[in-house]
Specification:
With 275 residues, the chain is α/β, with parallel strands linked by helices. It has ten helices and eleven strands. The structure holds nicotinamide-adenine-dinucleotide.
Length: 275
């Protein structure tokens, strides 16, 4: 039976230390939310609650789906110039008619709390880990906490987005893993997952990863979050998979809380660079 990678516990330990750091500081995080995507509302609320718990000023700026790209970029430009604002977050996904890359790249890289500007992603590719995407960083931190070695391991990531899969691929490479990225056009996914020491799935498809796709003794990280029949579900058939692997993350309570802890940690990194 697999050991559970308890993201709730590990993230609480990290938050506890961060609470002390922020207790005597005035820090502001500005978050931009466009449209009314249900999941985005849930994620933003979780981030807001955690910031408020730590005494961090959380400003939520809402735009309607039809607000237009320029209105969002103008707001980001003014936040870039506002010395009270330490971090800027654009909640993804943005509506399809908006140019996500253009909007993200209008954030001053020094305030880019999610590490998604071309500058911060480029630095990561060059092996300089400055501000790193919170989910990717959270996954690595969780495995490190359980002393899961990455050196020489074969890791398969199911996700090629620049929010999750691509930064995670770089982090794993930096840690000495051999990495394969799979996506919706990948043929015979099972062949890849069956040969992997570590499988990280972020497809957003419940039960995509079944027990017979898992190598015995491997590590299974489930990033996917889908609401199914009123319950949050990951990509992995958790109940069966846990009998085959050595470590597994639950959904909820795995990668999700780690992502939020890393967001606050990134705010600390920014704060320390620009006190
Ligand atoms: P996305 O739509 O950009 O990425 C989905 C990825 O899955 C793509 O790379 C796509 O090619 C791949 N994919 C889809 N169907 C596939 C299939 N049948 N076989 C193999 N690959 C397939 O979404 P995203 O923003 O990267 O998020 C992905 C999932 O992760 C969502 O469920 C999201 O809610 C979740 N997520 C969780 C956290 C967290 O903190 N736990 C953070 C970010 C995203």
């Amino acid at each position: 039976m697999a050991e559970i990678l308890d993201g709730t516990n590990v993230s609480e330990e990290i938050i506890h230390e961060l609470k002390e750091y922020f207790s005597d500081k005035k820090t502001k995080l500005a978050t931009i939310l466009v449209g009314n995507n249900y999941s985005s509302e849930v994620y933003v609320n979780m981030k807001k609650r955690k910031c408020e718990e730590l005494g961090i000023d959380f400003e939520l700026i809402r735009f309607t789906e039809n607000a237009g790209e320029e209105a969002v970029i103008n707001k980001i430009n003014s936040l870039n110039l506002d010395s009270n604002v330490k971090g800027i977050l654009v909640q993804l996904p943005l509506p399809k008619m908006m140019n996500t890359k253009k909007i993200l790249n209008s954030i001053n890289p020094k305030k880019d709390i999610d590490g998604l500007t071309a500058e911060n992603l480029g630095l990561l590719i060059m092996g300089e880990e400055r501000i790193i995407s919170c989910t990717a960083k959270g996954i690595i931190r969780l495995m490190e906490k359980y002393n899961i070695s990455l050196k020489g391991k074969k890791a398969v990531i199911i996700n090629n987005s620049f929010l999750v899969g691509r930064p995670l691929c770089q982090l794993l490479l930096n840690k000495g893993a051999t990495v394969t990225i799979c996506h919706e056009l990948t043929k015979n996914l099972k062949e890849h997952t069956l040969s992997a020491d570590i499988v990280i799935s972020a497809a957003g498809i419940p039960f995509l990863i079944k027990e017979d796709m898992i190598k015995s003794g491997s590590v299974i990280i489930d990033v996917g979050i889908t609401k199914k029949e009123g319950k949050l579900t990951g990509d992995v058939d958790f109940d069966r998979a846990k009998n085959r692997c050595s470590y597994i993350t639950p959904v909820p309570g795995g990668v999700g809380p780690m992502t939020i802890a890393m967001l606050i940690e990134n705010l600390r990194i920014i704060n320390e660079r620009t006190p």
